[in-house]
Amino acid sequence: MSFLDASISVTVGVLCLIAAVLLRTVGRRTAPRLTVLLILAGVVGIVGTPVGGWLRTAVGWADTAVNTVIGRYTGAAAVGLIGLVAFLVIAFDLVNRAITNRTLACAAVLPVAGVAIPGTAGAVVMGVVGAIAGAFGAIGGFLF
Question: Are residues 79 and 115 in the same domain?
Fold first, then answer.
């Protein structure tokens, strides 16, 4: 990723996160579903940069630590399970219109932990997350 692409990605990600914080605090929680989507897009925008490399390294370290304690395949399943649970919490809360701080935390964790979900489920989850980020990225690219 070139410096220009990375800087645009970070800018759009940070703007999405700022908009989410403003909607949640100053906006008196007027658009909770949009807030979740903005957090997803913001974290995905940051994950694709060197900061995201640090986050992926931290997840890899946690995966290695879990692997040494409970076994290689169980450790990978544990990190993938975190991503899958985060996705299910977000989906359940979006459908039931019950957006809480738990939902927002899962939205922040999903782009980083979702990569560890194995198989078709992981491909579907990351496809959905990528589509959301792509939509916000297209809007951000249009603005810049």
Answer: yes
